[in-house]
Design brief:
This protein is of the alpha/beta class. The chain has 2 domains: 5-30 and 147-232, 3-Layer(aba) Sandwich (Rossmann fold); 34-144, Rossmann fold (3-Layer(aba) Sandwich), CATH 3.40.50. It contains 8 helices and 11 strands. Strands 3-8-7-4-5-6 form a 6-stranded mixed beta sheet. The chain has a 5-stranded parallel beta sheet with strand order 2-1-9-10-11, with helices on both faces. Helix 6 runs parallel beside helix 7. The longest helix has 14 residues, at 171-184. The chain is elongated and about 55 Å long. The termini are close together.
């Protein structure tokens, strides 16, 4: 295990602290995240809030919603919500589809929820819940732009075949990586690298590349990615 390099291709700079010391981790976010100007709507109009990313939680704060039901997509988002002081958190422990199923089972028809999110979404919650007659308003508070270059240290590690795994946490991160592979002409170097993905949707974004092998987490949670890495090491 010693000497393996886990290259994190994601939007979570703190992920490198979650892997044990047997790994050298090269953090390579594929997305630049920036806060947008926004106005918080009248929260008294809403029966609850939805968070589908920890980033949205980090950027958003209004203590007027602490008493409301908060619907979170998974453990990472839930953890950050708790750190921020939210109390009534309902954790779907999965993906957007599981979150919608949870909401439809707990929220009355005609209820109104506020989805605090980024500009780009992988799953349309409002559309999914339309048949349940649950109204979803979106508050877009941040944006993510695909990066235009790969750090030299990571590029050299890939070319020198010192990378054992590359992990992808979002579809857009995968798409950004595919663009950079073409730009730098490094696809042939991927044949010895294991591709690790948060979900089948994420895998689809990088499946056309020629990897050593590909793997998908059982659930889209950080601890599942760590478990997958250890199983494959």
């Amino acid at each position: 295990m010693q000497g393996n390099i886990l290259t994190l291709v994601n939007t979570r700079p703190d992920s490198k602290n979650l892997f044990d010391s047997d790994f050298q981790v090269l953090s390579a976010p594929m997305l630049d995240i920036s806060l947008l100007e926004y106005d918080v709507p009248n929260l008294s109009l809403y029966d609850g809030l939805i968070f589908t990313s920890s980033r949205a939680v980090e950027f958003f704060f209004d203590d007027g919603c602490f008493s409301k039901d908060i619907y979170a997509v998974g453990n990472k988002t839930t953890s950050v919500l708790k750190e921020k002081g939210y109390k009534n958190i309902i954790n779907a422990k999965g993906n957007g589809k599981k979150l919608c199923k949870l909401i439809s089972s707990k929220v009355k028809r005609g209820s109104k929820l506020l989805h605090v999110r980024g500009r780009n979404i992988a799953f349309d919650i409002a559309k999914e819940l339309a048949e349940s007659e649950i109204i979803i308003d979106s508050l877009i508070i941040y944006k993510s732009e695909m990066v235009s270059k790969i750090d030299d240290n990571i590029l050299n590690a890939i070319k020198n075949r010192k990378v054992d795994f590359i992990s992808f946490y979002s579809q857009r991160s995968g798409e950004a990586f595919v663009n950079l592979v073409g730009k730098y002409g490094i696809e042939s170097y991927l044949s010895s690298i294991k591709c690790l993905c948060f979900s089948e949707m994420v895998l689809n974004s990088v499946s056309n590349l020629k990897w050593d092998c590909t793997h998908v987490c059982d659930n889209p949670e950080e601890e599942e990615m760590i478990k997958l890495v250890r199983e494959l090491s």
